Amino acid sequence: MKELELLGPHTDGSQLVFTDKDGERYLIVVDDALKAAIRRGEIKLESMPKQGSQLRPREIQQLLRAGMAPAEIASTYDVELERISRFEAPIIAERNFVINRALTSAVGTEPDSPQLGDLVIDRLATRGVEAQSLSWSALREDENPWELHLTFIQAAKEHHASWQVSNRGTLIKALDDEGRWLTETTAPAPANVTQFPEQADHSPNIPGEPASGEDIDKLLDGLAAQRGRRVPLEYVDDEEEETKPSL
User: Fold this and answer.
1) How many whole angstroms separate alpha carbon 76 and alpha carbon 70?
2) What is the pLDDT of residues 83-111, one digit of tens each?
3) Mutual angle of helices 57-65 and 88-103, in 10-degree steps
4) Which whole number is the average pLDDT over 157-179?
5) Is the N or the C terminus of the chain less surrounded, counting Cβ atoms within 10 Å?
6) Domain extents for the chain?
7) Highest mean pLDDT range out of 103-107, 216-220, 241-245?
8) Residue 8 — very low, low, confident or very high, per pLDDT cuts 50/70/90?
9) 123 contact partners, CB below 8 Å, separation of at least 6
């Protein structure tokens, strides 16, 4: 793996310029996946236990919820792997509980509102994404709300979508463009749509690529015209009740 040094932003404002020890330069697109990784990294630095400290059971659980593997925790904090592994199964069950509740939660407040899992499969089918390529995970940093993460493959490229969810698994808000695209409307996307409608003098961005707010609005308006009408999603912001399995 090459180590790169940040030189600064590209002149187009949507990429970062890096260089390696040989002076070769690299361009990295500032997309939703990068922003999410930076956000998670900042939270970890602020909330995770300090290296070299004696980990308490609650801190081990916190690290596992945040997505760290037992071997990574044991190596980072110089703790026996066996001690960390004792807490892994309950945390996996807790994370799976949040995922399952989120996928079966209604997107919207109407009686016939679709479930998140079904809606995502329908939306991505219009982009040629196989349901088998979808991978779900749930993470929680410290006392922040749970985050639901989706990874899927489209045209041999990995894409990511993220949502903030409550302890009961109901959606609070989308965290990136892919998440907003997948849950912005409550009307199902037609299965025969293979491309986005063209706009005069405008080439729409695919979700996940850098785009201005105006670009995103035009894209959603175009999608709405083809689907029927644009309906803002009414998220249910409920009380943070602890219904997850006890640890």
Assistant:
1) 10
2) 999 999 999 999 999 999 999 999 888 88
3) 40
4) 90
5) N
6) 1-30, 95-227
7) 103-107
8) confident
9) 181, 182, 189
Contact 207, 181 (CB under 8 A): yes
Selected residue with higher pLDDT from 149 and 246: 149
CA distances from 241 to 95, 103, 236 (A): 15, 18, 13
pLDDT of residue 185: 55
Contact 116, 181 (CB under 8 A): no
Give the pLDDT score at 10: 75
Residue 175 three-state SS: coil
Longest dimension (CA), the chain: 62
Give the type of residue at 180: R
Q: How far is CA 24 from CA 2, 3, 27, in A?
A: 11, 12, 10
Instruction: Report the distance separating Cα 135 and Cα 161, nearest Å.
Output: 11
192, 193, 195, 198 alpha-carbon torsion, rounded to 10°: 130
* Bridge partner residues of 163 (DSSP): 148, 174
Residues 14/210, Cβ–Cβ less than 8 Å: yes
Calculate mean pLDDT across residues 149-178: 91
End-to-end CA gap in the chain: 38
146's CB contacts (< 8 A; 6+ apart) are 98, 138, 139, 140, 164, 165, 166, 167
Both tokens assigned to 198: 């063209």
Six-digit token string for 128: 């040629």
What is the residue-wise DSSP string for 95-163?
Answer: HHHHHHHHHTSBSSSSTTPPBHHHHHHHHHHTTT--GGG-EEEEE--TTSPEEEEEEEEETTEEEEEEE
